[in-house]
Amino acid sequence: MDLSTLYDIKGKVALVTGGGSGIGSMATEALVRAGCKVYIASRRLESCEAVAEELNAVGPGTVTALQADLSTAEGTESLAAQMAEREPCLHILVNNSGMTWGAPFEEFPRQKWDDVFRLNVTAVADLTRLLLPLLQRAGTDEDPARVVNLGSVVGTRPVSNSAYSYGASKAAVHHLTKILSNELAGRHITVNAIAPGPFPSRMMAFVTDNPERRRQQEERVPLGRVGTPEDIAGVLIMLTSRAGSYITGGIIPLDGGIAALP
Q1: Which residues contact 191 (CB under 8 A, 6 or more apart)?
Q2: pTM for the structure as a whole
Q3: Residues classed as catalytic
């Protein structure tokens, strides 16, 4: 057993959707610092370009920014085509793009159920399907290709915070992860989900950017703090390296203990 290479992912090709902000940019930084060739994509090309410029100056991996509106079929098809033009195989797919919406249940608009599920669930399934040829070419028995979906603690715990469609969509992501893990294992592809609690991000800015709300949030976390980029990096590198090659179908809690609360 060579422990020095257990977490080595240097040289792998990765795609991170929504890599221009929040947890997506944290995941991108982890992969770049680990020496991966990373592509990031979102509707906001300028955000991805800013992250790419910053991290390319750090290395040792590289970042390429792409644009794609994953809420549409045309967007997922375009991104898959862009990847196929650039790379013969894909070792790591991080399905991170997502959105949320909050309103009292009595006022919750039907359109926001459709919008949230379209990006948070349908796009995850559709992009994974379209990238299967690249993932299959990368995967081997000893080193499978990896799909890592971003779920959420609210996909596990029945707490809405008035974001009804978001919580339901993340529960769907968790279940889809388990279904695909069974179906794709024979093709040398593992499928897991990370289920974060509170992390600094665009979605959580109304909490984490407000000192009093942040303090209240941290008091509800058993470990007493919000997540950090290092927390994302640790789990992601484990799942995408030899250390995680025998894990599939997992919903990995990354929430400071919230999921274990009674």
Answers
A1: 128, 147, 149, 177, 180, 181, 184, 248, 249
A2: 0.94
A3: 166
